[in-house]
Each structure stands twice: as C-alpha cells, then as structure tokens.
Amino acid sequence: MTSSAPRRSPLALTVLALLHYKPLHPYGIQRLVKDWGKEQVVNVRQRASLYRTIERLNEDGLIAVRETERDQQYPERTVYEVTDAGRETARAWLAEMLSAPKQEFPEFPAALSNLLLLTPQEVANVMERRAGALAEKLDELEAAMAAEAGLGLPRVTRLETEYLRAVTAAELEWVRAVVEDLRAGGLAWSRDQLDALAAGQVHQ
Q1: Which of 44, 49, 146, 176 is 20 to 30 Å from 27 by CA-CA measure?
Q2: Rounded distance, CA 138 to CA 159, Å?
Q3: Phi and psi dihedrals of 123, rounded to 5?
Q4: Cα(88)–Cα(24) distance, rounded to whole angstroms?
C-alpha cells in the first residue's frame, strides 16, 4: 500500500461499494453503475477514468485481483474484490461525504459570477433555455422516481434520485424567478454603469 492516504472521489467510493456485493471486472462495474441508475451521480462515460480509478484503488490496497476470466468470446477480464482496508475506507469516505459539505466549483455559479459580459436581454434568453432544460430533467427524475417506487424497493435505494429531484426543482424555481425579474426590469445593468464601477475599483 502506498504511504499517502488514498484519495477519495465519488467514482472511487462507488467502485468500492459495488465490490461489497460481489467481485467484478471493470465492465461489470460499469454495467452495474448504469443498471442501478448511479450514472446520475458518478461519471462512467469515459471508461479510461474508471480504469484509472480501479488501478489507483488496487495500488492503494483497497481492492485486489481475485482472478482473470478467460473466454473465447471476450478479451481477458481481470476480476477485482474489495479488501478489508477497502471496506474500512469506504465506510470512512461515506461518513465524511455525508457529514461535511465540500466546496465544489461547478460551471453554473462561475457563469453567474461573470454574466455582466452579457446584456440583461441576453441573460434572460439563455436562462430561459436553462429553465426549459431543467424542466425536462425534472420530468425525467420524477418518472424515474415513479418507476423505482413501482419496483417495491425500499426508499434508501432511491435517495439519490430524490435528492436530485429536490435540487433540480429548487434550481428551476430560482431560475424562473430570475428570468421574471430580468423581463420586468427589476434586474438590470448597463455598460456605462459597469464601466464606471470598474473605473472606481481600479482607482481605489
């Protein structure tokens, strides 16, 4: 095991969690992520990132090679299993990620901090497009929640979808309110105002 502490990530936690159920090869992990709807919260679209995560977990001693499957129809597949250290680390990561909000830097707040580059009309137009996309996503999440509930699974298996639905609904409400303020003129700015503001700050 390496001397430095293992680096956690949503994908690394998910790999360890899935290997708690049974040993898997990388393709099996990727398939389960999609089958169980976890692609909503972890990115496995780039298989290379999954392989890098698995390699790092193996180097850190959190997973280990169980066997190599050989089948004439497929290339050789390395099957991994979680180690005792991996089980302990997964529990610690999960507790940390649940209890302590992490300072993250998503694109949308960064864009909001620079929207003065656009006119109020331009911002209203693009924010309306975002509202439309959010409404579609909300419909998809509500459909997914209904489908999951129909399977009779316990609520704990649906919490990530429930959370995403709540966050999406809240963002949609906020975006629509901002667009309404922009259209009504309650939220406005001009180039002259921005130039004067910038000049004042530069000469302070």
Answers
A1: 146
A2: 15
A3: -65, -45
A4: 19
Q: What is the pLDDT along the chain (204 residues), one digit of tens a residue?
A: 445 678 899 999 999 999 999 999 999 999 999 888 888 888 887 788 999 999 999 999 999 999 887 666 667 789 999 999 999 999 999 999 999 998 888 999 999 999 888 999 999 999 999 999 999 999 999 998 998 888 888 889 889 999 999 999 999 999 999 999 999 999 999 878 777 777 776 454
Say how far apart CA 134 and CA 171 lie, in whole Å. Answer: 8
Two structure tokens written together for 134: 């959010």
Q: What angle do CA 154, 160, 164 make, to 5 degrees?
A: 130
Closest CA to 191 of 120, 131, 92, 110: 120
**Burial of 86 (C-beta count, 10 Å sphere; 0-12/13-18/19+):** buried
Q: Are 187 and 181 in contact (CB under 8 A)?
A: yes
Domain 10-99 has CATH 2.40.10.10: no
Residue 196 in tokens = 């004067």
Name 72's bridge partners.
Answer: none
- How large is the angle between the packed helices 26-35 and 10-21, nearest 10 degrees? 100
The one-letter amino acid at 65: V
